[in-house]
From TrEMBL:
One of its GO terms (molecular function) is actin filament binding. GO terms for biological process: actin filament bundle assembly; actin filament network formation. Keywords: Actin-binding, Calcium, Metal-binding, Repeat, Signal. Pfam families: CH (PF00307). It comes from Geodia barretti. Residues 48-153, 173-283, 296-406 form the Calponin-homology (CH) domain. Residues 1-21 form the signal peptide. The keyword Signal applies. This is Fimbrin. InterPro entries: Actinin_actin-bd_CS, CH_dom, CH_dom_sf, Fimbrin/Plastin. It comes from the Eukaryota. The keyword Repeat applies.
Amino acid sequence: MEGRPHLILGLLWQVIKIGLFAKISLQNCPNLAVLLQEGETLEDLMALSPEEILLRWFNYHLEQAGHPRRVNNFSSDIMDSECYTILLDQIAPDEAGVDCSPLSEGNLERRADKMLGQAHKIGCRKFVRPKDVVKGNARLNLAFVANLFNTHPALKPPEEGLPDFDLGEYGETREEKTFRNWMNSLGVSPFVNNLYSDLKDGLVLLQLFDKVKPGIVNWSKVNQKETFKKIGGNMKKLENCNYAVEIAHQMGFSLVGIDGKDIADGNKTLTLAVVWQMMRAYTLSMLQRLAGSDKPISDPEIVDWTNTTLRDSGKTTSITGFRDPAISNSMPVIDLVDAIKPGSIKYELVNCGTSLSDEELIQNAKYAISMCRKIGARVYALPDDLVEIKPKMCLTVFACLMIRAKTGKK
Ligand SMILES: *[C@@H]1O[C@H](CO)[C@@H](O)[C@H](O)[C@H]1NC(C)=O
Ligand SMILES: *[C@@H]1O[C@H](CO)[C@@H](O)[C@H](O)[C@H]1NC(C)=O
Ligand SMILES: *[C@@H]1O[C@H](CO)[C@@H](O)[C@H](O)[C@H]1NC(C)=O
Ligand SMILES: *[C@@H]1O[C@H](CO)[C@@H](O)[C@H](O)[C@H]1NC(C)=O
């Protein structure tokens, strides 16, 4: 039981991080290109973790201020509030009246308090108390800095102009983001920032397999991170990927033409193929566990449960499968939510009718997904998945609702 609060705090932290780090990308902030160092490409920059980008951003502002110090971490390097004071002075708009006066305070805790007073002037007194600064609490200080970046990046475009690149190419697709959020919500380590580069050593995939089917991974066969730095490290990573693919075969994944090397190389198409099947397997394994069944739950069983649940609550909607055009207006999902938790849907907020506009379809889908989450279904599909009737994603929506219904929360 003792480990429990830690586990919950850990998961909560993962969720907070997902939100805080969402904006730290070239796509959201093209001016990040100014942080490129000699000889680096944009790909190099995109491969950095959000923590690394935030440190660079911090140091960039220290350099711009002509300050001699640099920070390498969010703990001992920030404890005396000196670098923070300089950073705040650099990023605050002139009219905010932020200055470096905290530096004349000798007592570190009082200095931290004054520094946070400056942060308050730009609406950023968040996440840390003076004592968290003085103690160098790494998580809380990281959150403090991430929030400063999100609200006051204060980056100008590079002098030579923004590099010529297609943002779409570097940005993350909706699907990638969903998969990443799902993994992080399960608490994998390390935190997955990039769906491809962070999966290349096989360790995250193996952790996920272990969550989908506890005990399936023989951890004594897995090479740990320490071995990657030594000679032959790439071979160790490849061995992990080969082992992950071997387990995927045991789990009955469809893996035509996929081997460990494709994962180790970060091949997008093939990595996605594995990850998608993993997410589906996880959802179905949750269902199976709840049903206390020794056989996997099949698609028709979910359809059947959906139809029955809808009919039993007097709803007129039904589905024939996960490609059913009836899913497009989200009504089956909305009705199902109301069937699971009667009265939860405000039908006056739903667009009814047979010929809805694209706008109305997406409104319904957004409402449907948000209501799924509101009644406690851990749905990770996105509104567009319903409107566009993406069968794999639609399946997960109904499966997640079924899990919610069977866990019996009211
Ligand atoms: C933080 O980085 C500094 C160097 O900038 C180093 O001396 C210190 O040990 C680091 N602290 C932690 C907790 O890693
Ligand atoms: C796990 O792998 C190790 C090393 O390959 C092997 O000796 C051991 O028998 C395996 N354990 C199980 C339960 O398969
Ligand atoms: C990834 O794998 C697919 C299928 O084998 C192949 O067509 C594609 O060229 C590979 N992509 C890269 C970047 O290697
Ligand atoms: C669900 O309901 C539809 C429409 O009533 C019907 O065509 C379909 O066969 C049903 N499917 C299952 C598995 O119950």
